[in-house]
Structures are given as structure tokens and as C-alpha cells.
Amino acid sequence: MEKIICGIQQMGIGVPDVQTIWKWYRKMFGIDIRLFEDAAEAPLMTRYTGDEVQSRTATLALSMESGGGFEIWQYTSRPTEKANFAIQLGDLGLYACRIKSRDVKASFEFHKSNGVTLLSELSQTPSGELNYFLEDPNGNIFNIVEGSGWFSDTKHPARTGAVAGVLIGVSDIEASLKLYRDVLDYETVEYDETGAFDCFSGLLAGDQEFRRVLLSHKSERKGPFSKLLGPTKIELVQAIDRKPKKIFADRFWGDWGFIHLCFDIQGMETLKKECETAGFPFTVDSGNTFDMGEAGGRFSYIEDPDGTWIEFVETHKVPVMKNIGWYINLKKRDPKKRLPNWMLKAMSFNRVK
Q1: C-alpha distances in Å from residue 164, one per residue of 94, 229, 250, 259, 284
Q2: Which pTM value belongs to this model?
Q3: pLDDT in tens, 269-288
């Protein structure tokens, strides 16, 4: 089977309290569809959890507007540790999650009126897109950006959808392009600019000089959930004025912050070979179907040149309407074909108010 990058499935977010922060995400972003909730041990991740099996609870939440979801992840076997330094723009790893908006000005006013910590005013990117930055109650940074490729209109007052990409701190953009452009198929460079940028000025170290490269994909993504996940962009940011720190230095996968960027894919074996050839071998691989409680699939991890965790999930089973036991078996479907809209919309019955 050929490799198919269907879209960003979710951003993993390590938190101290899943239910408290998810309530905030529901109100501020409208990410309110619970695809699964699972409490279990994570035996396959010991490489990144101190060589010990850790326990956790995780909730995968989506928006019917479109965009990737949040995998909200909390340790239950140990405290969730924060970085012991102030994370600055350009530090290495997943720095900010891009959230798509139907109307960036309206989203800004909604967040302002609801007391959200805003880290910038409305401003334009080098390509002219309106955007702003905000901070959640746990200190995670989100970049609200102009959205496209909408699935449905939920009329949420924030006018936002879900994950539309990510801003990643890297040490060498040319090295990072070998993964994000050449393997993950973000082949279009929307801009490549070096300097100080007004839209970064409210961020820690944001007044310094950076090289920033925004990547997107020309073609619509294929695959079962591609219509719901929608188009995404990845921005690579390299600090020029200082030596950056690694955001997850001396911490475990699953600790406080953005822990991984997860892609929904088809053709895991083909992707595995391509990653190995490009110099990004799988560091974790579940092999056959891994039971995730209410869902199932094969998952794997690689590291980008700076050690940032990238997850791939080939979904095999997913709940549509859990209360009547309706699940989709994707192994029996054409991997390139999108699920019909009515089937995707049925997931709205899993909404949590």
C-alpha cells in the first residue's frame, strides 16, 4: 500500500488535570466531541518514560468544524512535570498549536471578552494572514489563524475550529525540511523570511531575530478522515540571536506541554521504509492493532532532527455512536476514500457540553 498522509489527527497535550482543561477547550475553541477516553498503562513508551511503564488517562477530542483534535494526556502514576525554565520562542520542539478561525477578528474579541490571556494583538504574518497568540490556563500557547477547508458550522461563538498545524522550534531549518517537506509532503513554501517580526513581539524572546518558514500542501489530503481533519500548515522557526533549549529536556514524554504531533496515515509499512531511508527510523512501533479502549490501530513514533516527537496512527477501528455500539472497521475500506459526510457527522452524538 502506498503512503497516505491523511492529515494531522491530533496534538498531544500533557496536562495536570484532563477534565478541567478540556472544559476550557470546549468553551474557548469548541473542541467538544469525545472520540475516546481511555485509562491504561503505556508499556510501549518506556523508551521515553524513564524505562518504566507509566499509567495515564487520555481523552481524544475533536471539533465538527474541522481540524485535528487534542489528545489530552495526564499521568496517573506520577506527577506531570513542567519545564524548569521559561520556554521562549525558538526553543526546540512544539512551541505553539495553530487553531483555525472562520473570522479571526471575531475570535479575538470573543477570547478577549472571556478573559483569555492574549499574548499579542491582531497582526499579519509575512504572507498577510491575520493572526494572534493566546495562552491557555496551563501556559500552552495557541496561534489563532485564518482557516479553510471547513466541514460543518457548529455556530460556536469563538468561530474557531480545531488544529490547523503547529509552530515548531528547530535548530537547522534545512535539516528539518528533510522531514516536514520531503517525507510529510508539506512541499509548498509559503514564505521564508529572516528578521524581527511584529506578530512575535508579545512572546518571550519574540523581539529577537528569527528565520521562519511556513509550509503547506498543494493537494487535498486523502483518506477516511481527511475531510474532517482538513488542510494544515507547519511553521518552522529558527532562533538567530541565541542558542535555544530543548523544550522537553530532562522530562518524560507525556509531561506538561505539547508532547507530540500526530498524523493520521495509511500505509504504515511504506511510511516506515521511507522514514528509515530519510534518516528518521521508527523509535516506537506497536506492530499490529493496538487496543486504545474505544478505538484501535497501529501507531509509531519518530523524532525530528531536534528530537521532537512525531506520531503516526493508522486507524483500524473508531467509534461513531458508542451508545449503540456502532464502530467503523477501516481495514475493510479503500484507504484513499473519504468516509461519507453523514457518517462523520454521526460522531456529533459524542458531543460533551
Answers
A1: 14, 8, 29, 17, 25
A2: 0.94
A3: 999 999 999 999 999 999 87
